[in-house]
């Protein structure tokens, strides 16, 4: 018997991917192999292959290139990977939060930042904790690329870091502008200058921190200025950099935020010009329309307000 057509006013909900399909996609992308992914999921390979075919049919696009020798993500699969991982992480975290909420009547907000901004973040987080003792906070520090990835895949709820172009689905509130400076021993011949150009440091023994976006900015600028990168020390820790600078062995190149959490006795902090390099510090989270957890929305709004006030002061 033929079913009568649905009235125009009745819309049929679109089918949604299942957790089994999404988990299958994640493991195949991770292992680049259907057989290894099936083992990780405790599924038969035919069942996993069927789940991936169903997901591709549902999405209307091929997610994997398959041959007898390899399994690779298609461009569409690469584009979808971060969102699918975020959906799975959000589901897992949401289920854990629900269990914790029902057990302890509390919620959790996971906040990350790049190391140079922790001294900005910690005081306002402490104020938030006093006002909302029922909300559990988890704090962590990350390199900026790691921070952006964790926000994108749902491992973090809120991040304070550098805005070099936001991942789709993220929102940002500008907090501060951070510039690169030279750190010199107080006895250095250039220590009393109001500002320095990069060319004036060309012949100086330099030291920079080894990782992250700031390192890439500095190295690119030194290369443009014709500096000898082989004579520049690349260090892992700020304490090492400051020790070398205090002893007069090196001139440090670092972001100004890194100088604000350090003892400045015996040091001179001098702005760098021509070119002046700056970084935009932003508080970031999932866009409000994609953020279902009220505790995260409330925390993000209050931290953004307090960080802006702190920066103005």
Automatic annotation (TrEMBL):
Any one GO CC term of the record: cytosol
One Pfam entry name: LysR_substrate
Keyword Transcription: yes
This protein's record includes keyword RNA-binding: no
Domain of life: Bacteria
PANTHER family: HTH-TYPE TRANSCRIPTIONAL REGULATOR YBHD, NITROGEN ASSIMILATION TRANSCRIPTIONAL ACTIVATOR-RELATED
Protein name stated in the entry: HTH-type transcriptional regulator CynR
Organism whose genome encodes this protein: Achromobacter agilis
């Amino acid at each position: 018997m033929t079913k009568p057509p649905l009235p125009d006013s009745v819309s049929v909900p679109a089918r949604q991917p299942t957790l089994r399909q999404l988990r299958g996609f994640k493991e195949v992308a991770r292992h680049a192999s259907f057989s290894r992914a099936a083992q990780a999921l405790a599924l038969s390979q035919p069942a996993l292959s069927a789940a991936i075919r169903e997901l591709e049919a549902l999405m209307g696009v091929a997610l994997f290139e398959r041959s007898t020798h390899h399994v690779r993500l298609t461009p569409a699969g690469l584009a979808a990977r971060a969102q699918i991982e975020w959906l799975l992480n959000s589901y897992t975290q949401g289920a854990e939060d629900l269990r914790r909420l029902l057990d302890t009547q509390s919620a959790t907000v996971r906040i990350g930042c790049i190391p140079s901004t922790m001294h900005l973040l910690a005081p306002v987080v402490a104020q938030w904790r006093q006002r909302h003792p029922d909300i559990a906070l988890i704090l962590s520090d990350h390199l900026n690329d790691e921070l952006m990835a964790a926000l994108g895949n749902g491992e973090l709820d809120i991040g304070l870091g550098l805005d070099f172009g936001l991942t789709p689905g993220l929102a940002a509130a500008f907090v501060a502008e951070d510039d690169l400076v030279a750190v010199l021993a107080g006895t250095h011949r250039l220590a009393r200058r109001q500002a320095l150009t990069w060319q004036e440091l060309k012949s100086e023994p330099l030291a920079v921190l080894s990782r992250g976006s700031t390192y890439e900015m500095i190295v690119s600028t030194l290369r443009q200025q014709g500096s000898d990168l082989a004579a520049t020390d690349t260090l892992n820790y700020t304490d090492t950099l400051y020790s070398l600078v205090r002893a007069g062995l090196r001139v440090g190149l670092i972001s100004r935020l890194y100088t604000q959490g350090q003892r400045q006795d015996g040091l001179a902090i001098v702005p760098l010009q021509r070119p002046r390099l700056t970084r935009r510090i932003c508080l970031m989270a999932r866009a409000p329309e994609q953020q279902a957890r009220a505790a995260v929305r409330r925390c993000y709004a209050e931290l953004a307000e307090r960080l802006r006030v702190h920066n103005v002061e």
